[in-house]
Amino acid sequence: EVQLVQSGAEVKQPGESLKISCEGSGYTFTNYWIDWVRQMPGKGLEWMGTIFPGDSDTKYSPSFQGQVSISADTSITTAYLQWSSLKASDTAMYYCARHAESGYNYAPDLWGQGTLVTVSS
Amino acid sequence: DIQMTQSPSSLSASVGDRVTMTCRASQGISSYLAWYQQKPGKVPELLIYAASTLQSGVPSRFSGSGSGTDFTLTISSLQPEDVAIYYCQKYNSAPRTFGQGTKVEIK
User: Fold this and answer.
1) CA torsion sign, A1 to A22 to A102 to B37?
2) Residue B38 contacts A where some CB pair is shorter than 8 Å
3) Nearest residue, CB atoms, B87 vs list A45, A63, A100
4) Residues 28 through 47 of chain A touching chain B, CB cutoff 8 Å
5) In the prediction, which pLDDT does B95 show?
6) What is the pLDDT of residue A103?
7) Residue ranges of chain B whose pLDDT lies below 70
8) How far is the C-alpha of B16 from the C-alpha of B89, rounded, in Å?
9) pLDDT value of position B52
10) What is the percentage of chain A residues whose pLDDT exceeds 70?
11) How many angstroms separate the CA atoms of A74 and A29, rounded?
């Protein structure tokens, strides 16, 4: 079965670091871009950035550039979204999503189940 | 960066009604436009890509049109299970911006 499985919910304090994951299976992981999308409570979808695991080419939204880091480990077919110092405003659901075809200009058709990140003191 | 603007922000219609919502790009994006449906508490699902191509498994009452800067998503006969927020997204280049969403409710 082709799927993306994300890591579980996290509760962190402001200033802490965090790395959440998105494991792909059932397809050739290195051939498809994976996007990260944020959804703050009660709000819309925000595109954060994307990575091509095959060569680690990464693109960020200007809104998230420098705030998060996207990476991938092809040996375990997993993409990551990482923060070095969390803020309360990072509280949100985070989704990973795979592009439908092997190429950049495709809409994501496969989504992970989401990882809820709560940042609170 | 290209901005995506959806209208209306919400709408209420009766079961069986024809429903139309729009998405406007601040610059031309050819047909690199997707529509997603997000039901309450659920993961977004791809409905339409390339502005007008129906994703496999999506009911035929959904249709998309447009190119360049102006796009439309139509539900030909609104069903109770269509209650959701609908988002457009441009995906031809980074940033792959989403619209702010249109919330569809049953009257």
Assistant:
1) positive
2) yes
3) A45
4) 35, 37, 44-47
5) 96
6) 86
7) none
8) 27
9) 98
10) 100
11) 7
Residue A70 pLDDT greater than 90, yes or no: yes
Which residues in A lie closer than 8 A to residue B34 (C-beta atoms)?
Answer: 107
B103 and A CB contact within 8 Å = no
- Give the C-alpha distances (Å, rounded to integers) separating A14 from A42, A89, B28, B87, B92: 21, 9, 40, 31, 35
Kindly state the tokens that stand for A46: 């925000």
Could you give the CA distance from residue A22 to residue A79 in angstroms, rounded to a whole number? 5
The closest CB to that of A44, out of B43, B45, B98, belongs to B98
pLDDT per residue as tens digits for the range A86-107? 999 999 999 999 998 888 899 9
Classify residue B97 by its DSSP letter: P
Interface of A with B in 8-27 (CB under 8 A): none
Please give the structure tokens belonging to residue B89: 């997204």
Query: Do A109 and B91 touch, CB atoms closer than 8 A?
Result: no
Q: What is the pLDDT of residue B70?
A: 98
Q: How far is CA B40 from CA A98, A100, B26, in A?
A: 22, 24, 29
- For A26-40, write each residue's pLDDT tens digit: 999 999 999 999 999
